[in-house]
Write a structure and sequence with these properties.
Elements (H helix, E strand, L loop, with lengths): L10 E2 L8 E2 L1 H7 L2 E2 L7 E2 L34 E3 L7 E3 H11 L13 H9 L49 E3 L7 E3 L18
Antiparallel strand pairs: 1-2, 3-4, 5-6, 7-8
Length: 203
């Protein structure tokens, strides 16, 4: 292995006549790049692709993901967005974000570019799984799609209770036209049947 010097390295640099081998666990530590796109090529530190972007971070620039300082130039471990050239981040940080976001949601943390950003990340060896982001697992945000369904008037007059309502008439439930987080039966707030909208006291 060209990184650790031990035997049984199984990955060879794809550059013709290079002859360097390395272990997959040693790749990141040694600055080797594996491209997780067809043709799934691997490169030793000497032949690893680098970002083709002319940019240098200003002094005191922090990684936009972990908020820790980045190096003073582009390196294997310090990357920049190829689109805006202002978003700097660590390789480990963008790799972690890629694993969480997946191909459908990964983008530049600053300018939100997708196309140019993804192409560059694939080329320099960031693994981006083709799946939904992890924050969609187990319907984590399912409750955001639920509609408010109870009367929040101080004194609810409906015999069936705050959680019940009718499709129309005096006991129809109106939601606040601004926040939709409060609701009232028409009669509980003294609203006539021809009134189509209502705002809660907070709004």
């Amino acid at each position: 292995c060209c990184v650790c010097g031990q035997s049984r390295a199984t990955i060879m640099c794809c550059k013709g006549d290079c002859g360097r081998w390395f272990h997959l666990p040693c790749a990141k530590e040694g600055g080797c790049v594996t491209q997780y796109i067809p043709d799934y090529r691997s490169f030793c530190p000497e032949h690893s692709p680098e970002q083709d972007v002319e940019a240098t971070p200003e002094p005191g620039t922090d990684c936009l993901i972990c908020m820790e300082p980045v190096e003073d130039r582009k390196t294997f471990r310090t990357l920049v967005c190829p689109a805006c050239k202002r978003a700097w981040f660590h390789r480990d940080c963008i790799q972690g974000q890629a694993m969480c976001a997946g191909l459908l949601s990964l983008r530049c943390p600053l300018c939100r570019d997708i196309e140019e950003f993804l192409v560059q990340m694939f080329i320099i060896g960031i693994r981006i799984p083709f799946r939904l982001p992890t924050w969609e697992d187990n319907d984590a945000f399912a409750d955001l799609g639920e509609r408010h369904s109870s009367c929040t008037a101080r004194d609810c007059l409906y015999p069936g209770g705050r959680e019940e309502a009718e499709e129309e008439g005096s006991w129809e439930l109106l939601l606040c036209s601004s926040c939709a987080a409060e609701g009232t039966h028409r009669r509980c707030s003294g609203l006539r049947n021809h009134i189509e909208s209502w705002e809660c006291d907070i709004c």
